[in-house]
Write a structure and sequence with these properties.
The structure is a homodimer of 245-residue chains.
Chain A: H1 7-16, H2 26-39, E1 48-49, H3 51-58, H4 62-75, E2 78-81, E3 85-88, H5 93-117, H6 120-138, H7 142-160, H8 163-183, H9 190-204, H10 208-224, H11 238-243
Antiparallel strand pairs in A: 1-3, 2-3
Chain A binds a DNA duplex (30 and 30 nucleotides) through α4.
Chain lengths: 245, 245
DNA sequence: CAATTCAAGATCGTATACAATTTTTAGCCA
DNA sequence: TGGCTAAAAATTGTATACGATCTTGAATTG
């Protein structure tokens, strides 16, 4: 008997305070659309985002597209190389470790704040979010499930009502999505939803200690779900390996 | 018997890994120059940065200036209002609390990492930095002293060799500079240099526990050095107060 | 005189054109 | 064939022009 949560409303709440310091306008629209596409793993790390191509797709001039790409670069989702253009970012193994170390420090503290501040309505909101996660998992829609899974962490940061932390969490979740696209190894993604359920319970009980410690375990668990071993460059040929291609 | 530290070299180390996701070029140059000016309190919060004006000063077209201003906006130093332009950011009292809460969480952890990783050369570098801070204080150059004081925290983050944390610290130090410009109340800034000296000693001894706890106390102390009471709007007239002007 | 209206000026938002640089491709030679 | 060179194509970097929006200040009106 839980209210269904439309994808649209979830999208809204996620973007209500977004990462980008752009005024409302077309550049921001393009930014948000590209961000969604990246977070849903519709655009793979390393992919080139040519200005003309993006402009063609969204019907905007290069001026606007450039502003959007630069905003995405500042958020860490895209990297811009001088005279070469913009590419979906490819976090290194080292960066992956760093991001999850940072999450393990910050998000538990945020979870504590959230548990101390959460309202009944917000508990219901989280519950609905969890249901949507389950639904996406059951439907086998991994892209959406991943987006929602990240959204859960962002919603917690919003509940904590701490704009500085919320901004950091958004940035880290974004980068985590890229990291997962590159390095995820674990087969069972169900366990993740389990952690979120345990968090929910802690929030419902206003148990700040539990929320903090569950969140910390959860993030350490996510970290350990990555395959972050340095791979031997076993390219198809020696020249490929040496070119770093 | 300590090597003098030139302002130039300090500037270099601070900008070697900067906050901005811009490729090398004129936009980045303008960004860094504006950043220095803001951090030295040469440009006051709320000041308007008109595109033509900035372009005139640095000899660049609006295209380039806009990219620089947007980068500064993403770093939190500038806020852009649609159809109105860019202004030096004016953090609210609430944001000030949040920034120092975040610093109190993150920087002690960073100090611990730094203490575990620091090399002898880096200890010397910090010592030289401290000397420069003292020199600026003795010379009564508050702008420079403040810049160096922030630079000390950034150098620690660089020593910790953790890019994700270092980026966060840079962003927080930048915003702290604006916050201090707006809300600093304490008369004796000498105590600050004292805290930095205590940190130095902990680093020299590779005492991670001490570094972490001293850094935490230091940041809490800085936080308490701000006057963050909500002021009554005692404008010159009722209409001024109600207009929020 | 205060408040309002409206036009002139200033400033920002965006498209487009051209220059600089990179990437691709074709040609050449060993 | 493989590798080098150079011209052509494609892409990004930047300046500028024009339309849209905001700001300013003078004229108008109650």
């Amino acid at each position: 008997m839980t209210k269904p949560v439309s994808a649209a409303s979830l999208g809204q709440t996620s973007s209500l305070h977004h990462l980008f310091a752009l005024p409302p306008g077309r550049a921001l629209d393009i930014c948000l659309k590209l961000q969604s596409a990246i977070l849903e793993h519709k655009l793979a790390p390393g992919l080139k985002l040519a200005e003309d191509e993006v402009g063609e797709i969204y019907g905007a001039s290069r001026t606007v597209v450039r502003a959007a790409l630069q905003a995405l670069a500042h958020s860490g989702l895209v990297s811009i190389e001088k005279n070469r253009g913009a590419f979906i970012a490819k976090p290194t193994i080292r960066e992956a470790h760093e991001v999850f170390q940072a999450r393990a420090l910050i998000e538990p503290a945020v979870a504590r704040l959230a548990a101390e501040a959460i309202t009944d309505d917000q508990v219901e909101g989280l519950r609905a979010h969890l249901d949507a996660e389950h639904a996406a998992l059951d439907a086998g829609d991994m892209g959406k499930a991943l987006l929602l899974s990240g959204g859960f962490h962002i919603e917690i940061a919003d509940i904590a009502d701490h704009k500085v932390f919320a901004r950091m969490v958004r940035a880290m979740i974004s980068r985590s999505s890229l990291i997962i696209a590159l390095y995820w190894k674990r087969s069972d993604t169900a366990c993740e939803s389990h952690s979120h359920h345990a968090l929910m319970t802690a929030f419902a009980n206003r148990d700040a200690d539990a929320a903090e410690s569950i969140q910390k375990s959860h993030i350490i668990d996510l970290h350990s779900g990555l395959d972050l071993r340095e791979k031997q460059t076993h390219g198809s040929s020696l020249s490929d390996a040496l070119k770093g291609k």
